[in-house]
């Protein structure tokens, strides 16, 4: 009886969240061209940024000289040819160290209400500075990175053109990277086309999968333009999620026991590309992930047929991937204080 009450209480919370989401998304839904009135809304077709700043950020994004070893770039863990992730349970960083948590996709990350699984960064700009100094990731420090970038004449000229003077500092470096990240949207998914009125954009099976996804309560967490990324939710709402991963989510940032296992809800856009799944990267298939989330978050046991339909729906969420050529990075000169190789401290 207690379990039933708990389920009913949870369903009530989910229903309230869905209704709140509908109200919050009403204006944006219309602006983004949807004709369906759904809680998921189409992604904008393009974003407007300073193109020169974005190009500078792109070069910095791909430049391994921002790391201590000179081998690791932002793209190493958020590979733009792999859905903006690295398809590893946890990323490999400086001196082949394994990271503590799964690398989330950078695609559409500008839609997240906070950055990182634990939300410790409020903006993309703030987030961009973190991996540079993380000893398990790029393992450098901001002063060294500034010195390296400022020693490269090509970068100095670009900073002068973008910012009006040749001052290279970490604020501008992370700003440029963040602006580049804002361009990494994946519009025009088949589901977005359906939301905008194209009845032929998805199949009957995929539509049934979406209806199961919606009516089961998944949209209480995965809604809006990002289809996630808009809230913290507890992993293991009805049953404990068993994992050997030590990450505690929001609690790692706030230090509060009440925040234990609360993580930023991941986006489901391009989800077929961003395996393995969950913060610990321990689930390799969408079928298994769907069953686990149904059981732990909704108290629901999906049938194999239902899972097949929901996973088919996930396949409609892949949008146009960024079409980027690897930039030509400004060459170092002989005086550039190059980062130390792996073998050195």
From TrEMBL:
The answer to whether the entry has keyword Oxidoreductase is yes
Q: Which domain of life is it from?
A: Bacteria
Give the subcellular location.
Answer: Periplasm
Entry's Gene Ontology molecular function annotations: peroxidase activity
Q: Where does the Cytochrome c domain start and stop, copy by copy? A: 52-153, 204-318
User: Which positions carry the signal peptide feature in this UniProt record?
Assistant: 1-26
**Keywords, alphabetical:** Heme, Iron, Metal-binding, Oxidoreductase, Periplasm, Peroxidase, Signal
The record's InterPro entries line, in alphabetical order, gives: Cyt_c-like_dom (IPR009056), Cyt_c-like_dom_sf (IPR036909), Cytochrome_c_Peroxidase/MauG (IPR051395), Di-haem_cyt_c_peroxidsae (IPR004852), MauG/Cytc_peroxidase (IPR026259)
Q: Name one Pfam family in it.
A: Cytochrom_C
Specify where it is mainly localized.
Answer: periplasm
* Keyword Heme in record: yes
State the protein's name: Cytochrome-c peroxidase
């Amino acid at each position: 009886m207690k379990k039933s009450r708990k389920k009913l209480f949870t369903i009530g919370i989910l229903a309230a969240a869905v209704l709140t989401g509908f109200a919050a998304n009403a204006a944006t839904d219309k602006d983004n061209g949807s004709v369906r009135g759904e809680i998921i809304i189409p992604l904008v077709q393009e974003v407007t940024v300073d193109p020169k700043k974005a190009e500078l950020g792109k070069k910095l994004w791909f430049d391994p000289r921002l790391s201590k070893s000179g081998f690791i770039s932002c793209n190493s863990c958020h590979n733009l040819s792999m859905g903006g992730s690295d398809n590893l349970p946890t990323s490999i960083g400086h001196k082949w160290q394994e990271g503590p948590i799964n690398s989330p996709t950078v695609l559409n990350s500008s839609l997240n209400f906070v950055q990182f699984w634990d939300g410790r960064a409020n903006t993309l700009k703030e987030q961009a500075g973190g991996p540079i100094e993380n000893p398990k990731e790029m393992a450098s420090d901001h002063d060294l990175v500034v010195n390296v970038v400022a020693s490269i004449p090509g970068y100095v000229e670009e900073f002068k053109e973008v910012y009006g003077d040749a001052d290279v500092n970490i604020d501008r470096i992370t700003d440029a990277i963040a602006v580049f990240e804002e361009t990494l949207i994946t519009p025009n998914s088949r589901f977005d086309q359906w939301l905008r009125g194209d009845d032929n954009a998805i199949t009957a099976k995929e539509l049934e999968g979406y209806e199961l996804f919606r009516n089961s309560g998944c949209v209480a967490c995965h809604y809006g333009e990002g289809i996630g990324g808009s809230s913290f939710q507890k992993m293991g709402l009805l049953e404990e999620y068993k994992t050997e991963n030590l990450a505690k989510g929001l609690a790692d940032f706030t230090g509060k026991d009440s925040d234990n296992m609360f993580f930023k809800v991941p986006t489901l856009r391009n989800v077929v590309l961003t395996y393995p799944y969950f913060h610990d990267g321990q689930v390799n298939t969408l079928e298994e992930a769907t069953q686990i989330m149904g059981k732990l978050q909704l108290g629901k046991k999906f049938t194999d047929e239902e899972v097949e339909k929901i996973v088919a729906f996930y396949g409609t969420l892949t949008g146009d991937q960024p079409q980027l050529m690897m930039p030509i990075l400004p060459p170092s000169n002989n005086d550039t204080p190059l980062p130390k190789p792996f073998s050195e401290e």
